[in-house]
Amino acid sequence: MTGILLRNGLLCDPRRRTRERGHLLLDGGLVVGRLSDEEALDAEKRGCHVIDAGPFWVTAGLIDVHTHLGLWEEGAPEEEGSGNEMTSPVTPHLRVVDAVNPADRAFSEARRAGVTTVQILPGSANVIGGQGAVVRTEGTVVDAMIRRAPSAMKAAFGENPKNVYRAQKAAPSTRMAVAATLREALLKARRYGESLQAKGKKGREGELDVKSEALLSVLSGEVPLRVHAHRADDMMTALRIADEFGLSITLEHGTEGLRIAPILAGRAIPVAYGPALSSRPKLELAELEIGDAARLVAAGVRLSLTTDHPVIPIRFILAQASEAVRAGLDADDALAALTINAAEHLGLAETLGSLDEGKRADLVLWTGDPLHYRTVAAATFIDGKVVHKDRGVQL
Questions:
Q1: Is residue 188 assigned to a domain?
Q2: Less Cβ crowding at N or C end of the chain, within 10 Å?
Q3: For residue range 82-109, what is the model confidence (pLDDT) as tens digits?
Q4: Beta strand spans in the chain (E)
Q5: 364 inside domain
Q6: Residue 291 belongs to what domain range?
Q7: Which residue numbers delimit the Amidohydrolase-related domain (predicted)?
Q8: What is the Cα–Cα distance from 258 to 264, expressed in whole angstroms?
Q9: pLDDT tens profile 370-389
């Protein structure tokens, strides 16, 4: 029998709020399921590789839903980053997969921190920044790391786009113009799509509008618009435009989300909260408060936590979650925000985010409670393969 048996680990399910001793069988890169003592003994007799997981807590692999890994690389000056194309405020045709460097050491640091999946997004200089991708954190060629691409169309509201283009004496330089720029691009893409439909197969024989073409999947709802927004009024503008065009939307950062928490909860808008360990270097971050993570969850908001790497280095993903717990967030809610909630935020909960049967065998063996400052990832698995092992750990 092939496969890996994790024997007697402390299996953690933050959504169900359970921590139970049990045996977990992995095979073919997937979680086969939990086994009884008798089934585990039988699997061992049939030649399954057995790992004594007794000393370890076992969780699903961590997921960061909003990062810039491989775009702003470790050790490189910020100006050498490849995340912002600041020559036009509308660049939906750009794809992060064409810029991500898998050799960025942040990927190995992510694995060492128990992070198995990340979403990589363009920066927030442009109103429409381009197409994101969800990737596994192990690999040497980005094409082999992709789990979904495009996973998102990045949009940005607030100070970043307006300040970038104000400095160039160009539009947009106000919040009104940011919203108008997004509307204009969506309207143009809608007309482009209607024209293609009217012309049938001959529609694409003419000159291709690559920007409008890239936005068609956003207008259809196939690709979500992931909106960088800190201020509550910017979030409401994003929701207003999403309603106008029937878009699928998530809010990224959500610093002032508490101001509109009933609306976010009532509409089940996913929010990627953070980075919340950073300073407050601009006006729209004046109300940044890590304790708001607990308050948003209490208000019923669908919350994930993000480092926004490299703003908070990916290796500190659990340090941020631990600080949120110290500020009032329930420990299970904190782990859920980095596993099953994050998978739902990305639309990948059928394959990621828990130890349930049939999901990818992305998981972590921890030396203790993952939220304790002394705990480390003893081993990290991606698709059932060990991609990180701490010194001295025997598997």
A1: yes
A2: N
A3: 999 999 999 999 999 999 999 999 999 9
A4: 4-13, 18-27, 30-35, 49-52, 57-60, 62-67, 115-120, 128-136, 146-156, 225-229, 249-253, 271-273, 303-305, 363-366, 377-382, 385-389
A5: no
A6: 62-350
A7: 57-385
A8: 9
A9: 999 999 999 999 999 999 99
